[in-house]
Structure formats: C-alpha cells, structure tokens
Amino acid sequence: MNTPDTPKPRIIWLNMLVFSLTFAIAAIGVPWLALTQGLQTGTLIAAVLATGFCGMSITAGYHRLWSHRAYEAHPAIRFLYALGGAFAVQNSILHWSSDHRVHHQHVDDNERDPYSARRGFWHAHIGWMLREYQASRYHDYRNVRDLQRDPIVVWQHRHYLMLVLLTNFGIPLAFGLLSGDLLGSLLLVGVLRLVVSHHVTFFINSLAHMWGRQPYSDANTAKDNPLVALLTYGEGYHNYHHAFQFDYRNAIRWWQFDPTKWLIRALSWVGLAHGLKTCAEERIQKAVLAQQWKRAEQRLQRLPNGEELRLRLQREYEQVLQRLQDYAAARKAWLEARRKDINRQMEASGLQRQYRELRALWRGQLRLWRQRMASYA
Predict the structure, then answer these.
(1) I need a labelling partner for 171 at 20 to 30 A (CA). Which of 143, 202, 318, 334 fits?
(2) How far apart are CA 198 and CA 200, in angstroms?
(3) Would you give the distance in Å from CA 285 to the centre of its chain?
(4) Mean pLDDT, to the nearest integer, of 272-294?
(5) Whole-angstrom Cα distance, residue 238 to residue 231?
(6) Nearest C-alpha neighbor of 66 from the set 1, 157, 2, 3
(7) What is the mean pLDDT of residues 142-158?
(8) More confident residue, 84 or 135
(9) C-alpha pair distances (Å), 5 with each of 118, 120, 248, 376
(10) Strand partners, 237
(11) How far apart are CA 96 and CA 67, in angstroms?
(12) Closest residue by Cα to residue 358 from 374, 375, 334, 337
C-alpha cells in the first residue's frame, strides 16, 4: 500500500482518456441532441438493447461462465458473449477473469485485491484502472489456464483491440445508416451505451461491497442489495455470490431480480447451456443460521443477563441445526428414490412420508427461530 513517502503508480493515460472522453461526450452530447433535435424512439430502443447485450455478456459470460465456471455454454453463446464483452470494452475474457479470480482469492486485501473496497469507493469503482497498481501481474494468466483451452477465449484475447473497434464503431454506424439517425446512433448506441455499460459493471465492485445486508457471511465487505441488483442485472446479491461463488445464481428466491440467472436457465431449457451449478439448500440455510446466531451473541453480550440467555438460545440454535440436518438427509433419500422411479419401494419404505414429516418439523423450528431472532433485531 502506498504511504505518503511512496510515489503513486503511473497513470494509465489510455484508460484515463477513454473514461473521461466518453463520459464527457455522453454528458454533453446526449442532452444537446435531445434539446436541439430530439431523440428518436428506435435509436433509444437500440441503445437499451445494446446496453443489455453488453451487460449480460459481462454478467452471464465473463463473470458466471468464465470466471466462476458456474455452468457450460454452447460455442454459439460463448461467441456472442465474447463479442458483447469486446463491445463493452472491459478487457479480454482472459484478463477480466484473471483479475476477478484474484479479487475472490484476496477480497478486501489492499495489496492483492485489484479493486479492494477497503481502499474507498473511488478506487473500487474506477480508480484501480487509472493507475498501474498491479502492473507486475498484468500478463500473468496462470490462474486462468483452464480458460486458455477455450478457443473462443484465446481468439478474443488475440484480436481484442480489433473486436473493440469493429463493435464500438461498426454497430453504431451500421444502425445509424440503416435508421437514418447517424448522429443519434453514434451518441446513444455508441457513447452513452458504453458509459452506462462501464459504470453499471463498476457498481458491482464498489456499491455491492459498501451498501446492503450480509445475511450469509460477514467475512468480507460483499453486500446484498436489491436496488444494486436492479442496476447490475442481478449482481447486487453480492453477499450470496461471495459466500457461494460457484452457484450460477446470485439471487435464490423467485421474487429476487436476477435476469442473468433467468437468461442462463432459459438457455438450458433450449439446450444452449448445461451443467448449471447450485449450492445445496442445507449449506445455504446453515450459513444464514450461523450469521443470525453470531449477531444474537453480539447483542446478548450487552445485556445484564446475557450469558443465561445465550445458553438458552444456543440450545435452540443447536436444535434448529439438527432439524435442518434431519430434513436434508430425508430430502436427499427421497430425491434419490424419485430419480430411480421406484414409487412402490418409496411408499413401502415410508421415505416420502418421512421426508414430509421432517420438512414440517424443520419449517416449524425455523419459524420459532426467526421469531426469536426478531426479538434481538
């Protein structure tokens, strides 16, 4: 970490110019166009679609597919992700994934985490890309050797600059010529789309480590926040992601906003994705219970009769864990029997009845535990 006597790393002028100029052009040019000529509906729709293509290529492709290997995708989908990633101008798949794996390995370590949130919002959001903080490992791709066996990843890495230029100039120009709104397309589909794509992704490194709840783990700064998820295609459920990083989902409840998860699941339904990895429900619930118990213990330490209450609550905590373990074992046995399609044997052995009974006991115990935790909120 830099001290007052240590010179700051050199500025990366190309990054500085790209981020500054695109932001300035978008901030000045788009309002000017709206006031002087108006914005065409077709161009606005194209800009939204192009922004979504860039964003989902990063979240579903760069992040969940390549960085975490949370699922496998058809070559056609991987090719589209590779194009969308170049269109988003966030470096090659190989480089992005290498950075991200280092982040997960050394999260919040100011020396080794490329975008440690403990160094402040600005550094985590964009500052880490403006200076040569970790120049010594820029081309060290030993942690992504698996990705170097993917021909699409290798192809994109070799031709990254060409793909950036072709997509960022070619797509807006082509749409502008076809629609008759060349200036609008260059500003909206070209520049504004790029600025939004950048900062939406950057929010995952900054806001998602600074603002929200930690229901699964407080071992690092990652937070769950529904509003951030709305801005980041589901990536705002970041506390869950850091606790269970190989799960293809960031949001695990049906009502939580995670369009990246929905895209991956939809691709699996039509045979374009497979091997979707999920974390066992028992493991997730254990993490939630452990967090609740930890916080309850901290509150009890401040009460005059805290030790007595702590012992009583600890017994309840152990009971709910036991119920969870019993329920998980029964559920596993029932699912295995159902997969083998042995309904008669299942009925004879009472597996289904046992599973339902233990599920009811677990849910009842969990309700009591939640009520108890609410009294310590």
Answers:
(1) 202
(2) 6
(3) 20
(4) 90
(5) 13
(6) 157
(7) 97
(8) 84
(9) 21, 20, 44, 47
(10) 224
(11) 8
(12) 334
Question: pLDDT by residue (tens digit) across 251-262?
Answer: 999 999 999 999
Q: Is the dihedral of CA 150, 155, 160, 164 positive or negative?
A: negative
* Residue pair 93/157 in contact by the 8 Å Cβ criterion: yes
280: which 2 tokens?
């066992």
Q: SS3 letters for 102-159?
A: HHHHCCCCCCCCCCCHHHCHHHHHCHHHCECCCHHHCCCCHHHCCHHHCHHHHHHHHC
Distance CA 334, CA 46 (A): 49
Q: Rounded to whole angstroms, how far apart are CA atoms 44 and 34?
A: 11
Provide the sign of the torsion angle of the four alpha carbons 370, 371, 372, 373, taken in this order. Answer: positive
What's the pLDDT score for residue 348? 46
Q: Where are the alpha helices (DSSP H) in the chain?
A: 13-36, 41-56, 75-88, 93-105, 121-125, 151-158, 160-165, 171-179, 182-185, 193-205, 226-231, 238-243, 259-269, 281-300, 306-339, 343-349, 351-374
- Cβ-count burial of 236 within 10 angstroms (0-12 exposed, 13-18 middle, 19+ buried)? buried
The burial class, CB within 10 Å (0-12 / 13-18 / 19+), for 60 is buried
SS3 41: helix
pLDDT in tens, 336-346: 777 666 555 55
| CA 150 – CA 362 distance, rounded (Å) | 44
CB 97 within 8 A of CB 66: yes
CA torsion, ordered 18, 188, 121, 290, to nearest 10 deg: -130
Asked whether the predicted pLDDT for residue 354 surpasses 70, the reply is no
Do 74 and 104 contact (CB within 8 A), yes or no?
A: no
Q: What is the pLDDT of residues 161-195, one digit of tens each?
A: 999 999 999 999 999 999 999 999 999 999 999 99
Strand partners, 266: none
The residue written with tokens 């709104």 in the block is: 181
